[in-house]
Amino acid sequence: MRLPGFHGRARGLLALGLAPLLSTGLAAGVAAWGPGSDALNRLYAGLFIGVLAQCLLLAACLTIRRPAGLPLRRALSASHAWTGAVLGAMLFVICLSGALAVLKPELRNWEMPSERRHPSVTLDLDDILAQGLAAFPHADVLQLDLPADGQVQARVQPAGPPQGAQNASAALAFPPHAPVHGKLTGLLTGLHNTLYAGFPGRILVSLFGFALGALVLGGVLLHLRQGAGLLRLRLRSGLRVLAYDAHKLLGLWLAPLLFLTAATGIFSGLGALATVQLAPYAFPEQPRQAMQALMQPYERPAAGQAASMSSLNELLDRHRQAHPAFLIQGVTVHHWGDAHAYATLRGTARGQLSTALFERYHYALIDLALLRHDSAAQRGAFTQAFIAVQPLHFAQYGGAVSRWLHALAGLAGATLAASGVWLWLARHGADSFRRPWLSGAMLGLLLACCTLFAITALTPDSWPARERWQVWSFGLTWSGVLLYGLLPARRRASRPVGLLRLASLLLGVAAAASLARQWGGALQAELPALFINLLLSAAAAALWRLARRLSLGTP
């Protein structure tokens, strides 16, 4: 029997109101009464099942009780077009910032040219620990962070609650170099993770994973049968034809990676929320045990008896011989000089879908005996899946190759969002660049990123005011383009052309200035920055070409 009036308001109520309530209730039920004695695994089972239920209910809103004159393909096409048009600008912001944020080590290498000039040295952990103990005499726990994410210095600082009069905010860097200043990676990573809005922004970003996943899946279902056009890119045709071909090619060929990015993006933010919200159902007596069960902290109380300590260098040598695939990212020393002193080695193996928070080896510092090994592989299936979300989303599993592959997917997602919105507005007889929200969110972010790269390349990393200039140039450029779009003008169509040309020139200046600094440097040290300069040069050429096509006015 047909449900009369199951259109419009009723369908929207189900999609936006009842579906989230039903999926949340299902997640809570699985966390509370699901099978198995592992409460944490039940909690994340509820998370994954709840998200899957939400996706199925949203699909049901599209397919069930459609009007008789609305075929499924037409309904899918309409939902794909309207979802992309409404959410495309925000997806552009998230995808573009994510594509750059995933290249954090390479961007750090590009941003800090003076660090590339420092000769590589072998770190003496015993000497670093001795200096750390002298600098922080009241610290019971010292944390040693080895160079990572493009950094060239190790750092030692107190860990845990502050004790006595120690300066817990200070950190010693080894080998000692002149301080460097730069906030390029921080700005881009913060924009992608939270939209500069803290935890609520993180949840909002994760919700757009549903939109990206639905758009990618819908586009594949709409165009997969068009086998003849899977390799067609008509460069000499009009701009609208070129945008359509590029939109289809990128969406079809990169669909698996885009869908993986969307799915992991959903759980990246909602997972943290679910850990807090579902904890009372999985751990009804003590909800705070959820975080303890996830982190599995290891504690060995001090014995109160002095003892001679083994060498940290010897510990790392032994560990590397026993576990050659394990990449050590940090060492935490507990109760140094005590009979129960121990060291925790943090890190991951290449290709392992986990992070240093969950991969730990605990060794006694008296005889270097292994006390305990913590690993994600020891967890339940759903907990392992949740731990794998971050390395999958941020490409932390395959080195530089995986990072560049995910960066390509992010740039493709940004291109899909921009071209999809432009095509929709062009089809409906509206100039896409006359919309202030679109100019501010898309062209504004593009020009702000180009300005940020130019300011970074033209200023030395030893300048203390560099970070302030980066922040102000990024924010003022983005807000300035938004205000520029709101101002009346006789020649509105010339605005995107001028902005695209300006963005192209800024990227060209950034690449040229960086290449000039690379001249005469060692190729191995300069290689990550060289790839960033090649990316900037290619983007500058593409933006200039796009501006030229727009200036010609070809439809």
Description:
Among the domains are: 119-176 and 301-339, no CATH class; 431-555, no CATH class. The protein is built from 20 helices and seven strands. It has helices at residues 8-33, 39-63, 72-101, 104-111, 113-116, 125-135, 184-194, 198-223, 239-253, 255-277, 279-282, 289-295, 312-322, 381-387, 389-393, 399-427, 436-458, 466-486, 494-518, 523-552; strands at residues 141-145, 154-158, 172-174, 326-334, 342-349, 360-364, 370-374. A hairpin with a 5-residue loop joins strand 6 and strand 7. Helix 3 packs across helix 16 and helix 8 (198-223) packs antiparallel against helix 10 (255-277). The longest helix has 30 residues, at 72-101. The two termini are 48 Å apart. 36% of the residues are buried. Mean pLDDT is 87; it is low at 1-6 and 162-168.
Layout of strands and helices, then pairs:
Elements lengths: L7 H26 L5 H25 L8 H30 L2 H8 L1 H4 L8 H11 L5 E5 L8 E5 L13 E3 L9 H11 L3 H26 L15 H15 L1 H23 L1 H4 L6 H7 L16 H11 L3 E9 L7 E8 L10 E5 L5 E5 L6 H7 L1 H5 L5 H29 L8 H23 L7 H21 L7 H25 L4 H30 L3
Antiparallel strand pairs: 1-2, 1-4, 2-3, 4-5, 5-6, 6-7
Helix pairs in contact: 1-2, 2-10, 2-14, 3-7, 3-8, 3-16, 3-17, 4-20, 8-10, 9-16, 17-18, 17-19, 19-20
